[in-house]
Description:
The protein has 432 residues and is α/β, with parallel strands linked by helices. It has three domains: 9-116, Rossmann fold (3-Layer(aba) Sandwich); 130-365, Alpha-Beta Horseshoe (pyruvate-formate lyase- activating enzyme); 371-429, CATH 2.40.50.140. It is 33% helix and 20% strand. It contains twelve helices and 18 strands. The protein has helices at 18-33, 57-73, 87-93, 106-116, 158-162, 170-182, 208-216, 233-241, 258-264, 273-283, 302-315, 342-365, and strands at residues 9-14, 37-39, 47-52, 77-81, 99-100, 140-144, 146-147, 166-167, 187-191, 221-224, 248-250, 288-295, 319-324, 371-379, 384-387, 399-401, 412-420, 425-429. It has a five-stranded parallel beta sheet, sandwiched between helices. The longest helix has 24 residues, at 342-365. The termini are far apart. It binds iron/sulfur cluster. Iron/sulfur cluster is lined by residues 125, 149, 151-153, 156, 158-159, 193-194, 267. The site of iron/sulfur cluster has 11 residues, from helix 5.
Amino acid sequence: MNDKNSQPQVGIISLGCSKALVDSERILTKLAAEGYAISNSYEGADVVIVNTCGFIDSARAESMDTISEAMNENGRVIVTGCLGINEDELRKTHPGILAVTGAHSYEQVVSAVHDALPPTSNPFVDLVPEAGIKLTPRHYAYLKISEGCNHKCRFCIIPSIRGKHVSRPIDEIMREAETLARSGVKELLVISQDTSAYGVDLGDGVKIQELAERLGELGIWIRMHYVYPYPHVDGLVELMADGKILPYIDVPFQHASPSVLKAMARPAHQEKSLGRIKKWRDICPDLTIRSTFIVGFPGETVKDFEFMLDWLEEAELDRVGCFKYENVKGAPAADLPGHVDQEEIDARWEQFMEVQQDISAKRLVKKIGRSIDVLIDGFDEQSAIGRSKADSPEVDGVVYIEDGAHLSTGDMVSVKITGSDEYDLYGELESK
Length: 432
Ligand code: SF4
């Protein structure tokens, strides 16, 4: 990496047709979601991807010249695209190439980047779940709207690695979102370190509300992650109630006890979060609220922990993830007093999960008998497996459809819910 405190930098040179360009954009979207920065120069890049074209001789020659240039100027090169079918020939000319993949295989390119330049990670706040390193199906995509963060939560090293919050210009985001929608993506997962802060640094008055409205016009599912419960978020929930964006909000509360939140230095820790949740549900009764929590943060007393359990019972969040506190190298929390014993952390985690499982099961059982839209993600031996508007990929539950074997990945179907358990729903197709 250029500097051990900066993001890993990837350069990309895209040659050839519009399909190749869409692949390049998908590769960049995925890498940006994982915390890679895109470099415009050979010197700034830790690795360079060359997306080649081999359609006619002149295009092949241009691709070969570009690979030579990238090898000379940078030396760490991944080749993809149409020329990738001639791997032997490529390797004969350039034995130092890191990886070669064929056309439209952006998933393999992303894996090759992971091998050459591992993503920086933080177990508490990674935007893409660990499982997200696995390949993103083509019918949904992550859309990163800003980078960095202005907060200083004590368990987190993101601000020191990725710097201050920088929003991407709205037109650039929209171009990417439109390209993804045109290429068949049916769901965009809006991510950033602090989604509600989108635009505060832009100086042109554009804020998250406007971005959400414009994304809502694309006619595909728009799912909001990493939203802090500031008052202006009510406006987003109104868009959800109007059906413009998905009635789903992911708010990383991390704790409920005021003293722990203060010790964590969480943004919005002074906000009355239960009141906000109630207001959101009044505005949008069908809202799904997802959150994550940390148990065993240094200084968390039994009272703090119980406060959080009571809060959970009252808040009745739909989807909840829970992390056991661990020291993260470079994060100030490691130096705080009052570290909780590992055994105690494990016990609190178990208890937390039990409480939340009951809440989740109670909320899901209410869906039995309803008809809901489901986007198909894949299959097991018996069923098609999809997600409803209430389920974000890889972190939430799924919907099993027993009579869905004939469906295809990426299909959107209407499903009548017939059963539920702690996390998942079961149903049958409404119209065949
Ligand atoms: S809000 Fe806190 S946890 Fe999230 S990235 Fe910023 S500092 Fe880290």
